[in-house]
Structures are given as C-alpha cells and as structure tokens.
Target: Cell shape determination protein CcmA
Amino acid sequence: MQNENKNKLDLIFHGAVNATGGVYNKVDVQGYGKINGDVECESLHCAGHVSITGDLIGSSARVEGNASIKGKVKMDTLSVYGQLDVADDLNFTSLKVGGNVKVQGNMAGEDVKVHGSLKTAGDCEAEVFRANGAFSIGGLLNAGRIEVILHGSCEAKEIGGEYIEVRRTGNSTLGKLLKHFLNNTLTVETIEGDEIYLENTKAKVVRGNKVEIGPDCEIDLVEYSTECKQDQSSQVKTLTQR
Model:
C-alpha cells in the first residue's frame, strides 16, 4: 500500500488553479481550486475553496474552508470545520461537524458528531448520532443510539433508534441566556425507540418501551409498553399503554 501511494501524484492548489479529476495521493487546497471529474484520493485538506464536478472518494478529508461536491462523497473519516455542500449522497465511517454541512441526498455511516450545523434533504442513518448543535433531517434519522443537546433549532421528519435522549441546554447562566436567543426545540412528526427521554420536544407521536417526557414538551400521542413518566410542565394530549 505504501508503494502504491508513492506512485500516486499529489494535487496542490496555491492561488487559482483548474485541474482534472483522477486518482491522487494527497489533495491540498490552500487557494481556489476547481476539479473537473471524479476524484479518488488518500487524503483531502481544504483550507481555501474547492469545487469538484464529480464524486469524491477517499480515506480522510478535513474541510476548514469551503468545499462543493457536485456528485457523491464516500470517505472513511470526514471532519468539517468550514462549509461542505454535497449535491448527492454522503457515506462515511466517522463524521465530525464543527462547521456547516449540507447534503442534498441521503447520509449513512457509523459515527456522527455534530457541534455545528447539519442539514440533509434525505435520511440519516448511523450507529451512533450525537448532536450538540443544530440539525435538519428531511427524512428519517435512524441510529442505535441518539444523544441530542439542543443548541438552536433541530428537526427531523421521523426519528428511530434503540436509545433516544434529547436534552435542552443546561441550567447554567450561559444556557439561560441562549434560551432567550435560540429556538432550542426539537420538532419531529414521529419518534420510535426502546428507551426514550425527551425535553423541549414537539412531536405528533412518541412510541417506546420505556418513555419519559421531561420538561417543556408538546406531544399529541404517547404510546408505551412498560413504563411512562411525564413532567408537569409538558403537555400530552393522549397517553396509551400498548
């Protein structure tokens, strides 16, 4: 593998450069780069602006500037601290979002950490989904374990998982100040899981085995199998044991 990597060329951008797609070892963008075609690389680092008209496939990518991908993205490790726009699907093993990520298709991977803003028009599937920021999922958010700390508006059409936990920003002075400026609420049509704990959540239907409705929730229907608790500050129109 090391010998194969040595035979691959690096693609380095300083200033404004146009290049052709292909197979590279390292792609490093410090200026403005446009790549026509698909790109396959071991690593991509973008501290400037890069536009790729095809697919992006590789082992690792770190976006600190602005990256626009007109096709699909498939990366083992992807870290975004700037802006990433993907016109098709995004597949990964590990995704860290410290900046902004927008996906026009579906997302699928193992581990997602959101500390910035994540938006996808389709579904998002993962083993673990942790958000300490804002997200908008146009379809289904599905993960074995979902942990959300609300910083700003969060929304999804549906949420499903074995363990689902949604908490508002803490009761610190900073948290109280943020509550006045940000809409720290999760809005979703349906939540289904085995063990569910919710705060600051607006939902039409919540279904689970063990369900706890914490503070400041508005739920139309809660269906539970074995156990359900409800905070007095929350509103549940209909509560049913299955």
User: Anything to note?
Assistant: Residues 106-241 form one domain. The radius of gyration is 21 Å. The chain has a mean pLDDT of 92.
